[in-house]
Specification:
Elements lengths: L2 H14 L2 H26 L6 E7 L14 E5 L6 H6 L7 E5 L10 E5 L5 H23 L1
Parallel strand pairs: 1-2, 1-3
Antiparallel strand pairs: 3-4
Length: about 140
């Protein structure tokens, strides 16, 4: 028999007979499933706290379009309270501050969302959907 083949066979048999090889062979499929499922399960967990989003709408057009639900409460700012006051309260009782400084149909970049932490994609998507729907209505009204 070829000496190289004997060496390969001996190495293979010694490694396969180890307890660690048997354990990892049986454990790895479970590990791969856990790696795939745990992030999906963590992402599906809903936050039960009610998050307050203050809307500073200088135009007065877009704030009524944002509707509250059990997770996000949109509150229109007082005319007397400055934006800096709300920004100082971020993280305490205010989750985010949405500032709209101009007509979005003319200047789309006149909106900003400030938050102490990274705002969830769900909140950003809701705000974008509501504002873009209103902008679309404004543009259609101008055409009519």
């Amino acid at each position: 028999m070829n000496p190289l083949q004997l060496i390969i066979e001996r190495e293979y048999v010694t490694r396969v007979k180890k307890k660690s090889f048997i354990f990892l062979t049986l454990f790895m499929p479970f590990l791969f499933v856990a790696i795939a499922l745990v992030p999906a399960l963590l992402a599906s967990i809903k936050d039960s706290t009610e998050n307050k989003v203050v809307v500073i709408d200088n135009t007065g057009i877009y704030a009524p379009e944002l509707t509250s639900d059990e997770q996000y409460v949109f509150v229109q700012s007082d005319a007397n309270t400055s934006a800096d006051t709300y920004k100082q309260q971020l993280g305490n009782d205010i989750f985010a501050v949405l500032s709209i400084t101009g007509d979005l149909s003319e200047t789309p970049k006149s909106v900003s969302l400030l938050s102490e932490k990274q705002p969830p994609m769900e909140l950003i998507t809701r705000i974008e959907a509501a504002l873009s729907e209103k902008v679309k209505e404004q543009k259609l009204d101008r055409l009519a």
